[in-house]
Amino acid sequence: AIYKEQVEKHENCDNLSQYSGVMVFAEQRQGVIQNISFELLGEGRLLADKLGEELSAILIGTDIFGKVEDLFKYGADKVYLVEGVGFENYRTEPYCYAMEKIINEYKPEIVLIGATNIGRDLGPRIAGRVVTGLTADCIELGIDEDTKLLLQTRPAFGGNIMATILCPEHRPQMATIRPGVFKKNDPDSSKKGVLVRVHMSISDINVRTEVLETIKQGKIIDIQDAEIIVSGGRGVGSADNFNIIKNAAKELGGIFGASRAAVDAGWIDSNYQVGQTGKTVAPKIYIACGISGAIQHQAGISKSDIIIAINKNPNAAIFDIADYGICGDLFKILPILVEELNKV
Ligand code: FAD
């Protein structure tokens, strides 16, 4: 019944030309804006410039006015700041309520949300409420030259193909985007923007959840922030052998990663898995050792600045996307490579 009501509401007012601009959901946790928000602003800026339209961010929370400047610095022309009691921690109902109201009122053409735990909860619900589509887990975005539609690319069929999805008949065009896929711009402190403050009350809605306590885990390893990653695959051979990868990463001041084969073999914790079902990374240097370069692995590394591959099979697919390929035994080559790189 709720869905039918929503559809009817939208059929009455669904004039696509009313929609304009790119809007980024600025995810914050405990008042800290998450990196994904800046990455989305970086990409959102490119999309907005191609359309000749505005880039906005929506920030929801309590006592977070001090964070608005950061969003301007990273490229937003406008920030919608939604504040009110009940928005301090992420909860599904209040955040959906706020997003739905802002989207219906300000009608963005495109809405971008991080494919984080929060974004994966929020994105589909908002799409349902505003009666539009959602392309989940995108790894590439673009604007079609002729139609000006958002090109939303994501892995499909178990990662065997990349599908580009369009949303021609509904607005906004909505996508969730994997963290680590896009680069954030360098912050520009001189950049100013327009602030729209919206006070909201959640007293009208039925909120079924309450945050009782927030427990901080120990240090969470995040290879997505690393500038240098040395990754090992099945070719490394064993958990003990993986020390060569770990040591190389340490010597280069980076972090180690792994293919799914190495994780499935139990050599490495899944927090370090790179690829479609692992992390998407975008380091300055990615060194793939004993990794064949399956499409699911490539999906996680294609945004790296430089890919160096060491593999003893000259026909390994990893060489197709590597900037530098070294054909040979990783146990001989990696120590030499580390030594040479450290001289640079
Ligand atoms: P292999 O493909 O076995 O390659 C090992 C390579 O090591 C070979 O190329 C070999 O020539 C080389 N080698 C062996 N010994 C040496 C040596 N001494 N020196 C140099 N080279 C050597 N995979 C991921 O990595 N990440 C994912 O997130 C992911 N998600 C997936 C999701 C789905 C739905 C599916 C179906 C698969 C997914 N996979 C993922 C698995 C993926 O398809 C591959 O099976 C996996 O990436 C293979 O890992 P690998 O390259 O380490 O192993």
Automatic annotation (TrEMBL):
Cofactor annotation: FAD
Any GO MF annotation of the entry: flavin adenine dinucleotide binding
Gene3D superfamilies: 3.30.70.20, HUPs, TPP-binding domain
Keyword terms: Electron transport, FAD, Flavoprotein, Iron, Iron-sulfur, Metal-binding, Transport
Cofactor annotation comment: Binds 1 FAD per dimer.
SUPFAM superfamilies, A to Z: 4Fe-4S ferredoxins, Adenine nucleotide alpha hydrolases-like, DHS-like NAD/FAD-binding domain
InterPro entries: 4Fe4S_Fe-S-bd, 4Fe4S_Fe_S_CS, DHS-like_NAD/FAD-binding_dom, ETF_a/b_N, ETF_a/FixB, ETF_alpha_N, ETF_asu_C, ETF_asu_C_CS
PROSITE patterns: 4FE4S_FER_1, 4FE4S_FER_2, ETF_ALPHA
GO biological process, one term: fatty acid beta-oxidation using acyl-CoA dehydrogenase
Pfam families hit by this protein: ETF, ETF_alpha, Fer4_7
CDD domains: ETF_alpha (cd01715)
Annotated positions binding FAD: 234, 259-260, 273-277, 290-297, 311
Family per similarity comment: Belongs to the ETF alpha-subunit/FixB family.
Protein name as catalogued: Electron transfer flavoprotein subunit alpha
Species the sequence originates in: Alkalibaculum sporogenes
